[in-house]
Amino acid sequence: NKLESSVQVTPDDLRKYYDEHRDQYRVPEQAKVSHILIKTPLPGPDGKVDEKGAAEAQRRAEDLLKQVKSGANFEELAKKYSEDPGSAKQGGSLGWIGRGQTVPEFEKAAFSLPKGQISDLIKSSYGFHIIRVDDKQDAHMKSQDEVKSQIEPILKHQKALQAAQKKADDLLAQARKQSLDAAAAAQGVPVITSDFFSRKDMLPGLGPAPQFMDAVFTQQEKSPPDEASSSQGIVIYQLLAVKPAATPS
Question: Between the chain's N and C termini, which has fewer beta carbons within 10 Å?
Fold first, then answer.
């Protein structure tokens, strides 16, 4: 975190990252829609549909369509009569949808109607829909300025990792030439000496560190200093002593 706050992201850094990741910032064609759904009966065990029930559903849907076309409040009708429980509570709103997210009949109507227009009855496998297109958005590429706030933290993190790795490599090289204590003193960082711990323990300040534990428990006692990764960063360590496994008496 300290390194991230100190690194600088230049306009060239932003432009290079944006150019290399353009596909991430492509926005597909979208429509913001609301609908009222009147369900039709599902086929019975014999595969037949209750024709009387289907006709009644159509009659109810046609009546609602007349009310909507006459200026009735779409949201209130959706809340009261729509049989799509998820959107009914929202006044019929489905929010933004893209192609391939709805059944074909619904998609065709949603993407062919202009903004603000209400469809005629649309029949789908779910039933009868009355669709209102609340907004539309053409496919486009987000500009670099639009995604700058998303890119900057990524670049700061990448640069901080690079700086941390270089700092760790330099400290390790110095520790192997002199000693861990001398290298740490020169870098102005503390040396922490642990008590004996097992592979399952979690050391204070390191958090989950399976790579560190794997490195330590395959290291030879009193080997030269080495480095390993942890969830908190890079650890420069030296294995001072090993206590063999033992069965309590």
Answer: C
Supply the DSSP symbol for 100: T
Q: Is the pLDDT of residue 2 over 80?
A: no
Give the SS3 label for residue 50.
coil
Given a contact cutoff of 8 angstroms between Cβ atoms, the answer to whether 221 and 241 are in contact is yes
Query: Up-side HSE of residue 207: CA atoms within 13 Å toward CB?
Result: 6
pLDDT above 70 covers a percentage of the chain that reads 99
* pLDDT one-digit tens code per residue, 30-89: 999 999 999 999 888 887 878 999 999 999 999 999 999 999 999 999 999 999 999 999
Task: Using the Cα atoms of residue 104, residue 108, residue 111 and residue 116 in order, give the sign of their dihedral.
Answer: negative
Token pair 């330590």 is found at 216
Q: What are phi and psi of 242, to 5 degrees?
A: -125, 135
Helices (H), 24-116: 51-69, 74-81, 85-88, 104-112
CA–CA separation, 76 and 82 (whole Å): 10
SS (HEC) of 186-209: HHCCCCCCCCCCCCCCCCCCCCCC
Residue-wise pLDDT for 201-210, tens only, equals 988 888 888 9
